[in-house]
Amino acid sequence: MTGVNSLNLVRDELFATMDEAERSLEHFIVDRQNGTLLQQAIENLQQVRGTLNLIELTGAELLAQETLHVAMDIPTGVGPERDGQLTALGSALHVLRRYLEGLGLHRQEIPELLLPAINKLRQACNQPALPESFFFSVRLDQERPRSASPAVDAAVRVSQTRHLRHMYQVGLLGLLRDPQPQPGLKLMARAMARLDDLYANDPRGRLCWIGAAMFEAALDGQLRPSKAGKQLGVRIERELKQLLNNPQYQAPRHLLKEMLYLIVLADSHGPRATQIREVFNLGPLPFTAPMLAEEYRRLAGPGQAVMRSLSTAIREELGSVKDLLDLIERGVVQDDGFANLHALLGKLAKTLGMVGLSSASNALQAQLAEIATWSRAAPGNTDALNQLADAVLYVESMVASLEEDRQAAPVAPLLQPGLSSPSFAVHQLTEAKIVVLDEAKAGLALSKRAITAYLESGGDKMHLANVPVTLQAVRGGLWFLGQERTARLVGSCADYIQQHMLETDQMPVEAKLESLADALTSLEYYLEAGGASRNDVLELADRSVEALRLAVAC
Predict the structure, then answer these.
(1) What is the pLDDT of residues 49-71, one digit of tens each?
(2) Choosing a second label site near 546 at 20 to 30 A (CA), which of 125, 200, 310, 497?
(3) What is the Cα–Cα distance from 243 to 241, expressed in whole angstroms?
């Protein structure tokens, strides 16, 4: 009897040993000249590691082993230069305890949960991080089924590969730079899917085959890329360069393993991911990506609970502020009420700044000078009260992000009117712009679905009947947002669909349809990414529209 079942037999002794190791480590941090304390911590860690090895808890044993390595690397009398290692040790022991406590409750071993703590320890010792797929096993000797795709001319393949690699690079740049990862992932997925079709029967296409399935699964499963996931995207881009320049290219096996792990983690049922799972005989994992994310937060300790408590306290303070504002508006507040309001807002502004909600803190700070002049004889006028009410509502919405353990997403560059505007009309305009942008994105997505239905039906024009009208509406919305170039590109796509798909009896050739899809995908990504400083995306759309032989004004 091993693993989770054996844990109960050694639980009390194991936890007592971990307690002793933590106490010795804490005392050593205070008294760093006392080598006996450090040696006691190392001996206890050795016992913890040995116990976990005995009951065969692989992930927990690896974390204990890395903890022991870091502890043995620390000399007596160490100075501030080793504070990072000491902090990583304390965090690792805390995570290990929480993980073992969870095993006793849920009786499900998930060693992947310990990888972040393991990698922090390795980073503290300047060792390379372990991949997310470290505990994942798969046979990589499976071959791709032959495809019926026609042969592609070598020169055309090289040209298309360069274009698609550039598309991938644009999406990767968005993934690395933009706060919202989905638009970049969509563009990368589009590029990899096209590359997969291009290299369908080429031995070099193994990377594109698995990569296309991985990005499809990531979008389908709504995975949020981790730091390791973004690094994986960069490594794939480097491999695409090798694919382009080396006729004998073979994708690295460790890279394929990481991509296959993400496919299984996403639990996608898309066509490419389903084929990969069948070929490689990949069964489901005992966890999902959201479950891992939630468990990571749980292992990190009381952070979530503390933030919720803080959010509750701030909401109570905001409630007091709103009560005072109500009294001021009705003219029944006493003189000390104005002083109390000023003190409350100053305290809230400092608290919000401390927890990282800088914009909310600044919104309140901007009101303090005006409020300091208020009195029972000269209360704030209607405009001043409205501005303060707007700021309080904004702060309330920002504080809600604390309860979800996330920072509020920054406003998209297309939509920045500024919080400190003098009237509520500015907020109304902001809401209108958000609605228009959402409608534009929805219109592009609807058009892409309609074109897909058109293709699947063999050219039934009924599916395209409303597409030009929808795209022209999107074009008008973009003009409203000041995105003239984007509007022209959308209008060009609408004109092509009207003239070459609806008003003719013959379906366009596949190359034209691919160019149209590339243009719409690039435009959709541009809007979802916010649009600012993303002229590289518009250039992609521009080239795709040029391939349709339409005049595009830039």
Answers:
(1) 999 998 888 899 999 999 999 99
(2) 200
(3) 5
> Does residue 348 contact residue 318 with C-beta atoms inside 8 Å?
yes
Number of neighbours of residue 342 by Cβ within 10 angstroms: 19
Give CA separation, 324 vs 169, 316, 344, in Å. 54, 13, 10
The amino acid occupying position 161 is T
Task: Return all residues near 270 (Cβ < 8 A) that are at least 6 apart.
Answer: 213, 216, 217, 220
What the block records as the tokens of 258 is 């990481």
CB 141, CB 279: distance < 8 Å: no
- Taking only the tens place, the pLDDT of each residue in 253-278 is 999 999 999 999 988 888 999 999 99
Q: What is the dotted CATH code of the domain comprising 4-124?
A: 1.20.120
Same fold, 304-404 and 426-547: yes
pLDDT digit string, tens, across residues 294-323: 787 777 654 444 566 778 888 888 888 888
Are 497 and 467 within 8 A, CB to CB? yes
**Which of 242, 241, 195 is closest to 214 using CA atoms?**
195
Indicate the domain borders of the chain: 4-124, 154-282, 304-404, 426-547
Tokens of 488: 């022209």
Q: How is domain 304-404 classified at the CATH fold level?
A: Four Helix Bundle (Hemerythrin (Met), subunit A) (1.20.120)
Burial of 425 (0-12, 13-18, 19+ CB in 10 A): exposed
- Strand, coil or helix: 546: helix
Buried b (16+ CB within 10 A) or exposed e, 437-464: beebbebbeebbebbeebeeeeeeeebb
C-beta of residue 99 within 8 angstroms of C-beta of residue 60: yes
Range 426-547 classified under CATH 1.20.120: yes
Question: Which pair of tokens denotes residue 169?
Answer: 């690079």
Burial of 166: CB neighbours in 10 Å, binned 0-12, 13-18, 19+: middle
Q: Are 63 and 49 in contact (CB under 8 A)?
A: no
Contact 210, 259 (CB under 8 A): yes
**From CA 284, how far away is CA 288, in angstroms rounded?**
9
408: alpha, beta or left? (left if phi > 0; alpha if psi -120 to 50): beta
- The token duo for 402 is 């604390």
Q: Does pTM top 0.85 for this prediction?
A: no
Whether 122 contacts 128, CB under 8 Å = yes
